[in-house]
Amino acid sequence: MTQVQTDMSVESLVLRAQRICDQNGARFTSIREKVFRLLAGTHSGVGAYELLEQLKQTEPAAKPATIYRALEFLTEQGFIHKIESSNAFMLCHHFDHHHPAQLLICQQCGHVEELHSNVLFKEFSSLADAKGFSIQQQTIEARGLCKNCQN
């Protein structure tokens, strides 16, 4: 993908996020937008402190609380997924609707691919229901090697 295509797709994502925030009555502040853009520029999970270091390039006064508040907001809006196993975050490109996620995480290069399988969601939910468990949020993580790293 060329830099122009990447920039255009990031801009498109930002406009969608701004529109959703407007509809929800939420403020998409400049800090939140900058963190969103940082996550939009990667295809792997990024830790909070790595994001903080990147953010400090344009916001030198940024502190850990700054990044954690932005990440909390972006998560609440459904714009990002937390990769629990590595305590990292990734942008969700399907944030205009609530959905369960299945994440394929490459152990070698860190690339994360997001899947949406209603079959997996329904089966997992059915199994949980049979145990009297009510799932509030579902993200399934699988670790392995991506196509590029297998070659």
UniProtKB/TrEMBL annotation:
Its main location: cytoplasm. Gene3D superfamilies: 3.30.1490.190, Winged helix-like DNA-binding domain superfamily/Winged helix DNA-binding domain (1.10.10.10). It comes from the Bacteria. It is found in: Cytoplasm. SUPFAM superfamilies: Winged helix' DNA-binding domain (SSF46785). CDD domains: Fur_like. Belongs to the Fur family. Homodimer. This is Ferric uptake regulation protein. It comes from Rheinheimera tilapiae. The lineage of its organism: Bacteria, Pseudomonadati, Pseudomonadota, Gammaproteobacteria, Chromatiales. The gene is fur.
